[in-house]
């Protein structure tokens, strides 16, 4: 796992560094192509892993996951790089990152990314509902995952060839409202209203389409983060921005776990036929997710708006930078604490064990 994350950060750093060399008129196309390839790989791997798991069991899947990375080693020799290049010291890079986060051009749009992602609180009891009430099998749940990866890839491609012409604000407003509609469809599924479709087919369209929307939203965020990276510290800066992005998602997941205690959505209650708590929780999480659109004015409309924020000589704020970093690290700490409690003390938040 550790090696994978090292490789992931290195790969993102390379993409960020090369993306800054693109002509201004075509900024974002390199990233969209790279991430399209990445999610295409996920899309292709998902059905294969499902077949291997169902046929041979988890041991074979684990062995394949351990061996496949070795097949990529020969390709490393084709990776061109400047050898013995001067590398800035840790202190100097940290100083550059501090100056970067103090800029309004950084903490304002990244503040939006953080607030928006933290509000994407999901219904943590949803999978349990699919298994216990609708009696979805492991193969059906895996089929949902495969469909999600396919639509995630299609979302990336949709942005690359169509939505890339839209302003970032318009993309977020459109996809957020659309996501709200599909999230509310889960209420119909809970109540057994599927318009003649089987629950699996209804859930397939409802669940998986949310990933199509996520794919559309993914690229504007990464393109914006590359624009925020200072020259010479692309790797460290981009890693920090993705940490902000991921810490908000992690904290959102932790909050969704805590929210399980608001209404009774335990396995026993769901199997008894009482889905009132499930319905209320779904409605609440949907409204919380859609509320992220209220902060969209923090997001620049385009790359040109972001550049104008950079050019503003009065845009620096040490207070803004301090708050930005403090919230980021506290979010990571909280998410880690909740994750540990979920392992060592299951049910501590009132959810079913």
Describe the structure.
This protein has 353 residues and is mostly helical. Helix content is 71%, strand content 0%. The protein has 14 helices and no strands. The longest helix is centred in the middle third of the chain and has 30 residues, at 199-228. The mean pLDDT is 80.
Give the topology.
Layout: H1 2-19, H2 29-56, H3 58-71, H4 90-101, H5 104-118, H6 126-132, H7 138-161, H8 168-190, H9 199-228, H10 234-258, H11 267-271, H12 276-290, H13 303-311, H14 318-344
Extended strand count: 0
Low-pLDDT residue spans: none
Globally, the shape reads globular
Element string (H = helix, E = strand): HHHHHHHHHHHHHH
The portion of residues assigned to helices is over 70%
- Termini gap: 27 Å
Q: Helical segment tally?
A: 14
Kindly name the structural category: mainly alpha
Strand content: under 5%
Arithmetic mean pLDDT: 80
Q: What integer value in Å does the Rg equal? A: 22 Å
Largest sheet: none
Essential attributes:
353 residues; mainly alpha; 14 helices; 71% helix; globular
């Amino acid at each position: 796992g550790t090696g994978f994350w090292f490789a992931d950060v290195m790969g993102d750093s390379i993409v960020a560094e090369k993306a800054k060399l693109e002509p201004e008129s075509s900024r974002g196309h390199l990233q969209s192509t790279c991430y399209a390839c990445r999610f295409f790989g996920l899309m292709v791997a998902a059905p294969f892993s499902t077949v291997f798991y169902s046929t041979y069991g988890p041991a074979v899947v684990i062995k394949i996951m351990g061996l496949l990375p070795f097949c990529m080693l020969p390709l490393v020799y084709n990776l061109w790089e400047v050898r013995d290049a001067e590398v800035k010291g840790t202190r100097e890079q940290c100083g550059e990152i501090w100056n970067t986060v103090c800029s309004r051009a950084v903490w304002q749009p990244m503040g939006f990314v953080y607030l928006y992602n933290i509000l994407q609180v999901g219904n943590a009891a949803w999978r349990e509902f699919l298994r216990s009430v609708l009696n979805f099998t492991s193969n059906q749940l895996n089929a949902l995952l495969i469909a999600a990866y396919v639509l995630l890839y299609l979302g990336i491609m949709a942005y690359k060839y169509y939505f890339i012409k839209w302003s970032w604000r318009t993309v977020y407003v459109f996809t957020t409202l659309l996501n709200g509609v599909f999230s509310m469809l889960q209420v119909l599924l809970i109540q057994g209203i599927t318009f003649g479709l089987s629950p699996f087919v209804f859930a397939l369209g409802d669940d998986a389409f949310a990933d199509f929307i996520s794919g559309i939203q993914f690229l504007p965020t990464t393109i914006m983060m590359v624009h925020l990276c200072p020259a010479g510290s692309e790797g460290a800066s981009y890693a920090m921005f993705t940490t902000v992005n991921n810490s908000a998602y992690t904290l959102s997941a932790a909050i969704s776990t805590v929210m399980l205690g608001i209404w009774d959505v335990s396995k026993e209650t769901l199997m008894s036929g009482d889905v009132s708590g499930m319905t209320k929780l779904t409605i609440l999480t949907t409204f919380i997710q859609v509320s992220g659109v209220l902060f969209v004015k923090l997001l620049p409309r385009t790359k040109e708006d972001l550049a104008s924020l950079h050019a503003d000589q009065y845009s620096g704020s040490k207070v803004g930078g301090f708050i930005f970093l403090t919230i980021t690290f506290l979010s990571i700490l909280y998410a880690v604490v909740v994750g540990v409690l979920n392992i060592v003390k299951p049910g501590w938040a009132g959810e079913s064990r």
